[in-house]
Specification:
MIC26/MIC27, mitochondrion, membrane, 188 residues, MICOS complex subunit, mitochondrion inner membrane, mainly alpha, 9% strand
């Protein structure tokens, strides 16, 4: 059996008590010889040289390697598409969150105005019966007129920008028609 001797040092607080423990057997005196570090089995170095030997690949490993090489161009293409679409999707999600916040904290009178503009679009659909061109022109036109009543400053800016773009498109169309005319009908 071992005999345990305790000594308490420090204040009476349990968390700060330190103990020294001495263990000894009653029959055997403690050995006087010390063990050296190199005699411990933990620190012994195995004798001989070790050599790395690579195991041959199995059929499963070969088929997986072949499959990975086959799929590499497709995975690279998917990674490129992901890196290109990720910013666009993030901006789309941010736009959706901003729209949601705007609709949750909308200015007073926003929803009645939105209802009138939507009703103007439905009236445009009713007036556009029968013709596909009318269905393309009347609903946005009626909605634009209703929106210009409620938001006149934005309507003026939109009209100015639209006028400039339509003018540029018209000039471009005239140039294309003139070039086509000169190439095909001036030779006659």
């Amino acid at each position: 059996m071992f005999k345990v001797i305790q000594r308490s040092m420090g204040p009476a607080s349990v968390s700060l008590l330190t103990f020294k423990v001495y263990a000894s057997s009653k029959k055997d005196p403690p050995p006087k010889t010390c063990v050296k570090v190199n005699e411990l089995s933990l620190y012994t170095v195995p004798e001989g040289q070790s050599k790395y030997v690579e195991e041959p690949r199995s059929a499963l490993e070969e088929s997986i390697s072949h499959f990975r090489h086959y799929c590499e161009p497709y995975t690279r293409w998917c990674q490129e598409m992901y890196s290109q679409t990720k910013p666009k999707m993030q901006s789309l999600v941010q736009w959706g969150l901003d729209s949601y916040d705007y609709l949750q904290n909308s200015p007073p009178g926003f929803f009645p105005r939105l209802g009138v503009i939507g009703a103007a679009g439905l009236v445009g659909l009713l007036f556009a019966r029968g013709s596909k061109i009318k269905k393309l022109i009347y609903p946005p036109g009626f909605m634009g007129l209703a929106a210009s009543v409620y938001y006149p400053q934005q309507a003026i800016i939109f009209a100015q920008v639209s006028r400039e773009k339509l003018y540029d498109w018209g000039l471009h169309g005239i140039i294309v028609v003139e070039d086509f005319w000169k190439e095909n009908f001036q030779k006659l």
